[in-house]
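Q: Structure tokens for this one, please.
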Amino acid sequence: MSFLQMLRKIDRTRWYVCHTCLGNTSHNAERSIFYTEAAPVNVLGRRVMPCPRCNDTNTRSFQQMKEEGSEAALWGLERIVKKNRGASSRFAP
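A: Here is the predicted structure, written as tokens:
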């Protein structure tokens, strides 16, 4: 990973982590992260994004994590995304 790639920011509103997949894959973050450009779905007045792998809505965007103050977890997830950004198929469903 080059130095410039490390500095490039990601769009936190498009990257999500699925907590159901995280639990099912023994906390393997690479298999729990996904990128989507689809619009979130409203479920009981709450905007959620269904996971393309398991179809569950137990997901949080990186932006939500930032707003909630989960800085340590967000830092680790963003680092995984930046490290594997060229291999986009790794985050595909």
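A few notes: The chain has one domain: 3-47+56-91. The longest helix spans residues 71-83.
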